[in-house]
Amino acid sequence: MSSGTADAAPASRTPSRPFGDRLAEAIDARGRLAVGIDPHAALLAAWGLRDDVAGLREFALRSVEALAPHAGVIKPQAAFFERHGSAGLAVLEEVVSAVRAAGGLSIVDAKRGDIGSTMQGYADAYLREGSPLAGDAVTLSTYLGTSSLAPAFATAAANGRGVFVLCLTSNPEGAQVQHAREADGTSVAARVARTAAQHNAAEVAAGAAMGSVGLVVGATVGGAASELGVDLEAVAGPLLVPGFGAQGGTAADVRAVVGGAFPFCLPSTSRGVLGAGPDGGALAAAAQRARREIEEGGS
User: Fold this and answer.
1) Nearest residue to 280 via CA among 63, 46, 48, 75
2) Which of 62, 111, 128, 191 is catalytic?
3) Could you report the per-residue pLDDT of 220-270, keeping only the tens digit for each?
4) Whether 111 is catalytic
5) So what EC number does this one have (predicted)?
6) How many CB atoms lie within 10 A of CB 74?
7) φ and ψ at 63, to 5 degrees?
8) What is the pTM for the complete model shown?
9) Which residues contact 60 (CB under 8 A, 6 or more apart)?
10) How far, in whole angstroms, is CA 158 from its chain's centroid?
11) Domains of the chain
C-alpha cells in the first residue's frame, strides 16, 4: 500500500444507498471500531519516520492497509495532513481513496462549521460527489447553531454520505456551550440531538438501519447525556465515541455513556492502536484486541 498511489483506486461514484445503511453493513462485517489516522510528529518519530510529506504518506497508507480489514471505519484527522500544506492534503486524498479501494468506510475528521455559502463550500469539499476529499462522512461543529449546518445536511443526503455533529465532547471547556440551557430549559446538547433525530426520521421510516446524521459523544462524559436530556436512542443515527483506549475511556465507559444506543455507536481510538506500529501485523492485532474489548467489555 505504501508504494501505491490514488490512481490505483476505483473511480469515486455517488453511493447507491444512504450512509446509515452502508455503515450498518460495515459494522456487521468489520465491527464497530473506528480507528483514527492521526500522524502527528511524535507518532511519526515512534515509527522511525521523518516529519515530512514522505513520512506522512508512509504512515497513513501503511495504517490503512493494516487496519481497514479490522475496523468498521477509518477516520483520518484532517489537521495532521493540513499541517503539511497542499502536499499533505494530497496525501489525505490518497487515504480516502485507499480506504474506498479496500472496501472500507472513512470519516474525515475535519470539524467544519460556518454559515451560508462558506458552509456550502465545506460541504462541497467533504461531501460532494467528485471531490477527492469526500470520504463517506465528515465531522461538523455546531458552534454557529445547527441551522447553519443545513447545506452540509442537504449535500450529504444528496450524495449518499453522512455527517457527525459535535454534541457532547470530553474537553472541560465544551460544557460551557454544550451544557448551557435555553430559556425553556432545553440544553444545547439536547437541541443538537433533536435536530439529528429530525433529519434521520425519514430515512428510518423508509426502512434504513439507521439515519445518516450522527453525533460525536465523548467516551468519558459519564452521565451527561441523561442529565442534559439528550436521548441518544431517539437520534436513531450513528454515534462516534472518541476517547476510547489511550485517552482513558474503557469499553464499560462507552456502554455507560450510550446506553441503549450501543448498536449505533462507533468507539474511536487512535494512539491505542497506532502505538503498536509500524509493523502491519502488530497494528492489525492491536485493532483486533480493541474490537474484542468493545464487544465483550462491560457486558
Assistant:
1) 63
2) 111
3) 999 999 999 999 999 999 999 999 976 678 999 999 999 999 999 999 999
4) yes
5) 4.1.1.23
6) 27
7) -65, -45
8) 0.93
9) 37, 39, 76, 81, 91, 92, 94, 95
10) 19
11) 15-296 (3.20.20.70)
